[in-house]
Amino acid sequence: MRITSLEDYHQQYQKSIENPAAFWDKIAQNFYWQKKWDSVYEADFEKAKFSWFKGAELNITENCLDRHVRKNPDKIAFHWEPNNPSEDSINITYQELQDRVCRFSYVLHEKGIGKGDRVCLYMPMIPELVVAMLACARIGAVHSIVFAGFSSKALENRINDAQCKLLITANSFYRGSKLISLKEICDVALENTPTIENVIVYRRTIEITPMQEGRDTFWFDELSKAYKECDPAVMNAEDPLFILYTSGSTGKPKGVVHTCGGYMVGTTYSFENVFQVDENDVYWCTADIGWITGHSYIVYGPLAFGATSVLFEGVPTYPDYRRFWQIVQKYQVSHFYTAPTAIRMLAKQGEKYVDAESLTSLKILGTVGEPINEEAWEWYNEVIGQRKCPILDTWWQTETGAIMISALADVTPNKPTFATLPLPGVLPALMDEDGKEIVFNGKEIQGNLCIKNPWPSMARTIWSDHERFKKVYFSTYKGKYFTGDGALRDADGNYRITGRVDDIIIISGHNLSTAPIENAINEIEIVGESAIVGYPDDIKGNALYAFISLKEGTSDEESIKKAILEKISQDIGAIAKPSKIQIVEDLPKTRSGKIMRRILRKIAAGERDFGDTSTLLNPDVVEKIKAKAIS
Predict the structure, then answer these.
(1) Which of 84, 105, 168, 250 is 20 to 30 Å apart from 347, CA to CA?
(2) Residue 64 and residue 98: Cα distance in Å, rounded?
(3) How far apart are CA 534 and CA 585, in angstroms?
(4) By percentage, how much of the chain surpasses pLDDT 90?
(5) pLDDT value at position 586?
(6) Where are the alpha helices (DSSP H) in 57-122?
C-alpha cells in the first residue's frame, strides 16, 4: 500500500487514473473481509449514486482491533492525556481497547440497539468516546457524534434529524479551566427528542449529576453487567457507518453519511501514505473526534493501520502555552497534526514557551481544517520543525471522508501554503464561472475546485435527503463533485486552496454556514434583519462580523448585542458567536431586495473600494456603515 518515492507516486497515480477499478481492488486486498466484493465501484453522477466494494461483507472493527490483537495485542493504541496534567494519563493497548469495545457492545445490545439504529454521542475527548463509537460499529449501529461544544438546541436538532434511539454522554468535564455541564445541556435537549429511549452517562467529574429514573443510567453500572465477548456484526460494504452533521447553506445542518467499506479503505490508505507512519512512531492528531478529522485521523484511519496515537482531552493553552510541546516530549511524538489556528495562536506567544529540546522526536508535521498562511507556515517550520520536518498541508472535507490533496511525507516535495498534489485516485478539475474546465497547459490557473471521479471514502448521501445531496454537490458542474472551494494550480501542478466560494466561512478550521446564524439572530424580536460575513483574523484565519438592523423604537445597543450572543450560544454554540457586531440603520440591497454581502465583506475586511454602488436600492447606507465600522 505504501508509496516510497516520488517516482513511485507518479506511477501509482497514473495507474489509479487509468484503471481505478484495478488500482483500488489491489489496495482493498490489504484488509480483512468476511466476503469479497462483486464489483469495485459503480458511479452515476447524474443521480449522485455511488457504491464501492458492492456485495462485500466486513466489520470495520475487525480491521481496527481484532487483526492487530492477533499479531501484537500489547501494542499501545492510545496514550490518553487528560485535560489536567496533574491527573493520571492512561495507556490503552489494542487488547484492552478490544475488550472495552466488546463489553460496551454488550451494553448496547441490552439497551435494544441493533443494526441500523442511530446512537448519538455527545462526549468529551476521553477513551470512552472511542469505545462507544467502535461499539456502535461492532454491532452495526450508526453513530452520530455531536461536538461537545454545541448547544442543547443544536444537539436536539441532530438527534431528531437522525431519529436516534440512545444518547451517550458524560456528566461534565473541564475544557481548560472551564467546567462544561454536559448532562444539563442534554436534559434541555431531551425535552424535545421523542425518539430517545435511554441515556447512558459517563461520570467524568465528581459533580452531582441529574438523572431521570427509567431513562438514565451510569456507564459503570451498565458495564458491571456486561460480558467481555461480542462477535462483530456482518455489515455490507455500503451499510452506513456514521452520520456526521456539517454546516449547510440553509438553516438545517447536513447529516453526511459515510459507509463501512469504502470509508475504511480510503482513510487507511491516505493515513499510511500521507503520514508515512512506521511501527514505532507515535502519532498525534490534536483535533476533536466531534469533527471529521477526529473520525478519520484519530480513530478509524490510525486504528485500521495499527498505529499508536495520542488522545488529548485538553486545550493547547492550559495550564499554559507549553502544553502541546510537553505532551510531544512526554510521549516522544513523531508525527504532529494540528490546525493552522492553533499554530497562529501559539506563534503569537513567541518562542518563550517552546523548548527546542522537547521537540527532537518530531519527524513529520501536518496541518488540517483550512489553508495555512505563509507566516504561520514559516514559524511552524523553523520553531517547531527546526527545519527538518516535512509540513503536510492537507486538504479534504467532511464529505470526502479522507485526505484528497496533500504532500506525502518525505516522498513528494513541499511548497509553503500549498496542499501540493492529489493523492492517487483523486482527479481534480478547476472550473470557470461558465461551467467549463480550465485546461492546464503548464501555466498557473485558478478556478472552482471540483473532483472528476469517484473515490472510496466519499459520502454517499445526506441522511433522509438525497435530493439535497445531489443538488448541493453534483448539480453545479455536471458530472463532477463541487467542493465549494476555490483553488490555484501553479506551473508545477501544485494546488493551493484559496478559500470558500459559497456562504460557508471557515473559523478555526471548522465550517460554519451563515444561514443558521442569521436565522437565530432574526428570531430576536427587536432585530429587523441581519447579515453575517467573514473577515480575516490573525489567529482564527477568519472571524464573523454581524451587521444588524433593528426595528424602530430600540436604542440600547449593548443589551441588544448581549441578547444576540446569548441567542447564538443557545441555538448553535459559542463557536458561532460573531467577534464583531455592528448595529446599522439599514443593510445595502439591490433593487430586488437582495442584501449585498460582497460590500459588507469588504467593509468588514477594512477595504474601501466598493465599486459602483449607484445601482443599489439605498447607496447612501454604504458610507454610513463604513463610517462606523469596527476596526
Answers:
(1) 84
(2) 9
(3) 20
(4) 77
(5) 86
(6) 60-61, 67-71, 94-110
Residue 267 lies inside a defined structural domain of this protein: no
State the chain's maximal CA–CA distance in angstroms. Answer: 73
Determine what percent of the chain is predicted with pLDDT higher than 70.
97
**Among 298, 305, 409, CA closest to 364:** 409
For residue 252, the model assigns a pLDDT of 75
What phi and psi, each to the nearest 5 degrees, are found at residue 426? -115, 120
Q: How many CB atoms lie under 10 A from the CB of residue 329?
A: 17
Cell of 322: 507549553
The grid coordinates listed for 468 are 439535497
Residues 429 and 443 sit within 8 Å (Cβ to Cβ)? no
CATH of residue 531: 3.30.300.30
Lowest mean pLDDT among 78-82, 185-189, 228-232, 295-299: 228-232
Residue 215 clears pLDDT 80, i.e. is over it: yes
Domain-embedded: residue 589: yes
Q: What is the pLDDT of residues 430-477, one digit of tens each?
A: 999 889 999 999 899 999 999 999 999 999 999 999 999 999 999 999
**Residues spanned by the domain of 622:** 504-627
Q: Which has the closest alpha carbon to 158: 131, 190, 181? A: 190
Which amino acid, residue 141? A
- With beta carbons less than 8 A apart as the criterion, state whether 120 and 164 touch: yes
Q: How confident is the model at residue 555 (pLDDT cuts 50, 70, 90)?
A: low
What would the pLDDT profile of 319-332 be if each residue is shown by its tens digit?
999 999 999 999 99
Residues contacting 76, CB < 8 A, separation 6+: 91, 92, 93, 94, 308
Query: What pLDDT shows up at residue 590?
Result: 65
**Distance between CA atoms of 230 and 110, rounded to whole angstroms?**
12
Q: What is the CA radius of gyration of the chain?
A: 24
Query: Which residue is associated with the grid cell 499479531?
Result: 71
- The Cα–Cα gap between 147 and 135 comes to 19
How many structural domains are present in the chain? 1
Pairing type for strands 216-218 and 235-236 reads: unpaired
Residue 320 burial (CB count, 10 A): 10
pTM of the model: 0.88
pLDDT band (50, 70, 90) for residue 356: confident
Q: Which amino acid is at 418?
A: F
Residue 51 CB coordination number (10 Å): 22
3-state SS string for 309-353 = EEEECCCCCCCCCCHHHHHHHHHCCCEEEECHHHHHHHHHCCCCC
How far is Cα 505 from Cα 503, in angstroms, rounded to an integer?
6
Mean pLDDT of the chain: 93
Residue 199 inside a domain? The answer is no
* CA nearest to 535, candidates 593, 578, 584, 575: 578
State the Cα torsion 143-148-153-154 to the nearest 10°. Answer: -60
- pLDDT of 88 > 90? The answer is yes
Q: Work out the burial of residue 317: count CB atoms within 10 Å of its CB; fewer than 13 is exposed, 13-18 middle, 19 or more buried.
A: middle
CA–CA gap between residue 92 and residue 73 (Å, rounded): 10
